[in-house]
Amino acid sequence: MRLMLLGGGSALGRALVHLGAEADVSFLAPRPPERGWDSASLTRLLDETRPDALVNLAYYHDWFQADTLDAERLANQERAAERLAELCQHHRIILLQPSSYRVFDGTRATAYSEKDEPAPLGLRGQALLRVEQSVRALCPRHVLLRFGWLYDDTLDGVLGRFLLRAERESVLALADDRRGNPTLVDDAARVMLAVLKQLDCQAPLWGTYHYGGHEATTALAFGQAVLGEARVYRRLAVEDIQALPHGATPDAAEEPQHAVLSCRKILNTFGIKPRAWRAGLPNLLDRYYRYV
């Protein structure tokens, strides 16, 4: 297949290109316009290139890593994603669209499956759900891939902001009753590449799938694991991590308390097994500290 990657310069895009090169899989990764991809630029791009499959990471940082987002920016991205789904259907292009655990409200204590009804809390989760709905309605040949807690090696990503705080603050407070699947960027890229390879076999595997790293954990326990590895590379100011109830955290209104995803469907359909996030943590932090 001729594969196109929007957002090739993002952390997940770079990881996907790197893994693809190792597997002799190449991507056409066009440079985005100065103001980013919008409906008009996407229309021109796909009219000219006509790939067989497209991975949409055009808004990866905003959707998965940004601290805050304004509603207007999200609305523009939603419209562009909707137009992209229309174009993919028009040109018979397979669309691989990532999404997030944020489409759920976190009231379910057990793992969320693809059959559970979404009910997002914040603006980002609501926007992601509307993008999902557009993709399903407009482009039948799609794979929606909902990831758990995504962490990459960028300075302004979720992990980077946490590590910067650890260098400046002596006490950090993390929720000990917020649970999810930490999912490292390299593992997410591995999963996306595995899905693309099987779609190349013409298997009709369209639909929605969940993926998160092996071993669900709390925000507190994950933070402790990260700091344990980080101290190998840098002297940290943080001396104490305090347990905080989810309801007392600054982002409780937008972040689901329970965000564990069931990965059974992606295992049964694509044979993709979850990998332990702890095993990939040293490599991720090594890359982070190499470039900060």
From TrEMBL:
Protein EC: 1.1.1.133
Keyword Transferase in record: no
- Describe how the cofactor binds: Binds 1 Mg(2+) ion per monomer.
One cellular component term (GO) for this entry is:
cytosol
Question: Does the record carry NADP as a key word?
Answer: yes
* RmlD-like substrate binding domain boundaries: 1-289
Which cofactors? Mg(2+)
Q: By its UniProt entry, which InterPro entries does this protein fall under?
A: dTDP_dehydrorham_reduct (IPR005913), NAD(P)-bd_dom_sf (IPR036291), RmlD-like-bd (IPR029903)
Q: Which GO terms describe its biological process?
A: dTDP-rhamnose biosynthetic process; O antigen biosynthetic process
The alphabetized UniProt keywords are: NADP, Oxidoreductase
Any one Gene Ontology MF annotation carried by this entry is: dTDP-4-dehydrorhamnose reductase activity
Q: Which family does it belong to?
A: Belongs to the dTDP-4-dehydrorhamnose reductase family.
Q: Tell me, what does this protein do in biology?
A: Catalyzes the reduction of dTDP-6-deoxy-L-lyxo-4-hexulose to yield dTDP-L-rhamnose.
Q: Under what name is this protein listed? A: dTDP-4-dehydrorhamnose reductase
Q: Which organism is it from?
A: Azotobacter vinelandii (strain DJ / ATCC BAA-1303)
